[in-house]
């Protein structure tokens, strides 16, 4: 099979072209470099063609000289330095007509090392601006094959034929001399100096980049009488959206609107899912013969997985809205708006998008942090990102706040429960920034590096792409629920059921008490009792210890575990049964209610700070290439959680 | 004509870049975006409390940079 590398500027329409050719969906974004991981797909037409072609969508670059990790992935792939050692047979460079000059200069740099192995796709010609003569002349001047398309409107058949016609039979070997600056060379994983390609580090790099731009300008001048783009709309919009005052107000308004939509829109769907799951569980409970299998299905699997699936609407709405914003070109502006605040905490405006993604889930946030050029700033962002209140913490917050915080109104307008929610969100975000500052002053000490950002032109976002993006993210989320959460739910059920207590202990007792005794004697029960002394200063008993321990796998599991522990089978955070049961639970040593406001806040604060997510640990290991960082994060965040809970408990006691 | 630092230019003013000082990385990043000495740019926005300055290049592209970088770019009024 032959390979085509898809290269181009961030937001040049690469991802739309990838989708067009392979039929697979790839996130399209207007934010500098959101397409962080490269996507691989096969040509749609492969089944009817003799020649089978694979397409690789690489992260966007401005230049062959990388300035961040994601850009380095692209350069390494082009220079054949990537770890997999994959060969390619054609480079298709997507030229953005909105940034024609800079794109052409990248084309010239690429041409120098791969020659005819490069073809150009002129994209965003929505208004058919480039006529045949202009295209011919351009092709002649630059010495490369060119096709003009509009990825938004064309069907991709011509592009498919064009690429098939120009792909080379043999793998392309980059040749000649490749100049790179001393600073950038560190970003490349391995420099294999081969016979054909000489990689040189030197200060000539700036002159070279400049020379390409000047040549690009000369070419454009010969093809078009005037090199002026239609940019009135962007300029007018920027006058308001980038205005010191109106722009800031708009920024606050738009992000408030996002959070507002997430909570109001998702309500009805979440209720619906909740009811369906309960109905399904009841149906199965009645139709499967009572016994081990019934318990495993209803109390283990459905209670565990169901408690997680309920968050699907929120995840999908968040990603739908973020995709609209990214496509529109506003995300890069949001980075500019936040840069000042971020720089105060030793971060970069480019950290804004990772943090915002973190409100849905830390994983996409950690991935998005790859676009941050400076390594130390990137590490400080990653190290603090899990403090951002992700959607997995919600069920725990809903359960505990709903049960123990009274719904009284303060100062006429503020609901005490809503204020508690806001406080928890604020606490997480605030400590994320504070800790980032501490890291930047200590271990990741260093100057605040450059923030120079390309602002794409505003575009009307495509609803179809946003819906597809939200669908893909939803699917990934369900996949996690169907694999990790499912697996853990099964393990938890077994660990909380076996070893079973002696029959004498349970004989003749009501079902609820039997479940209680079973748990006490189970593996999970014994572990909980072992760690109880450690958590007693926080006001917690062994049952809560079990809940916290299980939540180490995934935070959502806390709610379903509490349900199992209190012998109610299928519960979720809205369940009145569990709420009343929690309130009625007595402390065997004092005879007073086990749960009170102090204990509830102690638990809540623990969830604000603790890194309780195996998926995050796994992605951290992948991103930092060792267990050192994830283990460090697990330790420092657990310590902060313990300290925070201790303070909260003793303040409220 | 006197050269000014770009960080002092008001919104709506068009200026010509005379010279880009500063570290090589900043220079390289600007060059890759197609911002060369001799080019004409217009300041389109200035962030609150010393936030980044946003700009429109004469060829129709838009970009933004911190004031610290802007201070290293010397410009002349048109």
How is this structure best described in words?
The complex is a heterodimer of chains A (653) and B (78). Chain A is α/β, with parallel strands linked by helices. In chain A, 58% of the residues lie in helices and 8% in strands. In chain A, helix 3 (100-114) links the parallel strand 4 (90-96) and strand 5. The longest helix of chain A is centred in the middle third of the chain and has 42 residues, at 246-287. Chain B is α+β, with helices and mostly antiparallel strands and 78 residues long. In chain B, a hairpin with a 4-residue loop joins strand 4 (53-57) and strand 5. Chain B is globular. The mean pLDDT of chain B is 86. Chains A and B meet through helix 3, helix 6, helix 7, helix 11 and strand 11 of A and helix 1, strand 3 and strand 5 of B. Strand 11 of chain A pairs antiparallel with strand 5 of chain B.
List the topology elements:
The complex is a heterodimer of chains A (653) and B (78).
Chain A: E1 2-8, H1 14-22, E2 39-42, E3 53-57, H2 69-78, E4 90-96, H3 100-114, E5 118-123, H4 132-142, E6 145-148, H5 157-166, E7 176-180, E8 197-201, H6 204-223, H7 232-241, H8 246-287, H9 292-309, H10 312-328, H11 330-344, H12 352-358, H13 362-368, H14 375-384, H15 394-404, E9 409-410, E10 414-415, H16 416-441, E11 452-455, H17 463-497, H18 503-506, H19 511-521, H20 523-535, H21 542-551, H22 557-565, H23 576-584, H24 597-609, H25 614-624, H26 628-652
Parallel strand pairs in A: 1-3, 1-4, 4-5, 5-6, 7-8
Antiparallel strand pairs in A: 2-3, 9-10
Helix pairs in contact in A: 3-6, 4-6, 7-8, 8-9, 8-10, 9-17, 9-22, 10-17, 12-13, 13-25, 14-16, 15-23, 15-24, 16-24, 17-22, 20-21, 21-22, 24-26, 25-26
Chain B: E1 4-5, E2 14-20, H1 24-32, E3 40-46, E4 53-57, E5 62-65, H2 67-70, E6 73-77
Span between N and C termini of chain B?
10 Å
- Rounded to an integer, what's the Rg of chain A over CA atoms? 28 Å
How would you sum up the major sheet of chain B? 6 strands, antiparallel
Most extensive chain interface and residues per partner: A-B, 51 and 33 residues
| Bulk shape of chain A | elongated
Spans where pLDDT lies below 50 across 5 or more residues of chain B: none
Indicate the proportion of strand residues of chain A.
5-15%
Separate helix tally of chain B = 2
Spatial order of the strands forming the largest sheet of chain B: 1-6-2-3-4-5
- Largest beta-sheet characterization of chain A: 6 strands, mixed
Estimate the helix proportion of chain A, in percent: 55-70%
Give me the CATH superfamily of chain B: Ferrous iron transport protein A (FeoA)
Distance between the termini of chain A: 68 Å
Unreliable residue stretches of chain A: 27-36
Helix content of chain B: 10-25%
């Amino acid at each position: 099979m032959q390979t085509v590398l898809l290269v181009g500027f961030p937001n040049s329409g690469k991802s739309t072209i990838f989708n067009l050719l392979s039929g697979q969906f790839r996130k399209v974004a207007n934010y500098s470099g959101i397409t962080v991981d490269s996507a691989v797909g096969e040509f749609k037409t492969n089944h009817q063609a003799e020649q089978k072609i694979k397409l690789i969508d690489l992260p966007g670059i401005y230049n062959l000289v990388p300035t961040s990790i994601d850009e380095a992935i692209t350069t390494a792939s082009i220079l054949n330095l990537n770890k997999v050692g994959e060969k390619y047979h054609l480079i298709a460079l997507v030229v953005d007509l909105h940034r024609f000059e800079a794109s052409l200069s990248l084309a010239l740099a690429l041409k120098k090392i791969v020659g005819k192995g490069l073809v150009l796709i002129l994209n965003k010609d929505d208004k058919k601006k480039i006529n045949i003569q202009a295209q011919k002349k351009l092709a002649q001047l630059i010495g490369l094959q060119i096709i003009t398309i509009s990825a938004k409107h064309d069907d991709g058949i011509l592009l498919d034929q064009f690429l098939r016609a120009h792909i080379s039979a043999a793998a392309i070997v980059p040749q000649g001399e490749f100049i790179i600056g001393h600073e950038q060379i560190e970003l490349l994983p391995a420099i294999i100096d081969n016979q054909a390609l000489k990689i040189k580090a030197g200060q000539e790099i700036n002159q070279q980049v400049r020379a390409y731009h000047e040549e690009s300008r000369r070419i454009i001048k010969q093809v078009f009488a005037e090199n002026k783009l239609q940019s009135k709309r962007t300029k007018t919009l920027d006058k308001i959206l980038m205005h010191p005052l109106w722009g800031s107000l708009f920024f606050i308004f738009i992000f408030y609107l996002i959070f507002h939509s997430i909570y109001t829109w998702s309500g009805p769907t979440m209720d619906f899912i909740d009811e369906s799951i309960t109905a399904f569980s009841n149906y199965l409970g009645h139709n499967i013969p009572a016994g081990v299998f019934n318990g495993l299905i209803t109390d283990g699997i459905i209670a565990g997985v169901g408690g997680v699936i309920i968050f699907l609407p929120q995840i999908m709405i968040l990603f739908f809205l973020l995709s609209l914003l990214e496509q529109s070109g506003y995300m890069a502006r949001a980075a500019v708006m936040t840069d000042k605040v971020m720089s105060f905490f030793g971060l970069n405006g480019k950290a804004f998008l990772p943090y915002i993604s973190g409100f849905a889930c830390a994983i996409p946030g950690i991935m998005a942090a790859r676009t941050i050029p400076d390594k130390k700033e990137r590490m400080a962002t990653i190290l603090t990102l899990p403090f951002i209140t992700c959607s997995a913490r919600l069920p725990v917050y809903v359960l505990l706040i709903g049960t123990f915080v009274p719904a009284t109104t303060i100062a006429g307008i503020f609901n005490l429960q809503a204020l508690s929610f806001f406080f928890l969100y604020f606490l997480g975000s605030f400590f994320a920034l504070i800790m980032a500052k501490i890291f930047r002053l200590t271990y990741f000490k260093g100057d605040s590096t450059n923030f120079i950002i390309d602002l794409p032109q505003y575009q009307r976002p495509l609803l179809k792409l946003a819906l597809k993006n939200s669908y893909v993210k939803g699917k990934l989320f369900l996949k996690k629920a169907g694999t990790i959460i499912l697996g853990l739910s099964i393990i938890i059920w077994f660990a909380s059921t076996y070893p079973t207590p002696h029959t004498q202990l349970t004989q003749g007792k009501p079902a609820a008490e039997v479940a209680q005794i079973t748990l006490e004697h189970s593996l999970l029960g014994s572990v909980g009792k072992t760690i109880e002394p450690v958590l007693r200063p926080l006001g917690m008993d062994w049952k809560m210890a079990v809940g916290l321990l299980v939540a180490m796998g995934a935070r959502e599991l806390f709610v379903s575990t509490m349900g199992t522990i209190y012998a109610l089978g299928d519960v979720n955070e809205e369940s009145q049964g569990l709420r009343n049961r929690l309130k009625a639970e007595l402390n065997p040593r004092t005879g007073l209610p086990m749960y009170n406001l102090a204990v509830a806040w102690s638990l809540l604060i623990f969830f604000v700070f603790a890194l309780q997510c195996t998926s995050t640990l796994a992605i951290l290991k992948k991103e930092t290439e060792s267990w050192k960082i994830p283990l460090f994060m697990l330790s420092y965040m657990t310590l902060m959680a313990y300290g925070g809970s201790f303070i909260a408990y003793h303040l409220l006691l | 004509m006197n050269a000014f630092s770009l960080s002092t230019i008001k919104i709506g003013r068009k200026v010509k870049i005379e010279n880009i000082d500063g570290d090589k990385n900043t220079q390289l990043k600007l060059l890759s975006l197609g911002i060369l000495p001799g080019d004409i740019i217009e300041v389109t926005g200035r962030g609150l409390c010393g936030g980044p300055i946003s700009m429109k290049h004469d060829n129709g592209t838009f970009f933004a940079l911190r004031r610290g970088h802007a201070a290293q770019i010397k410009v002349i009024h048109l």
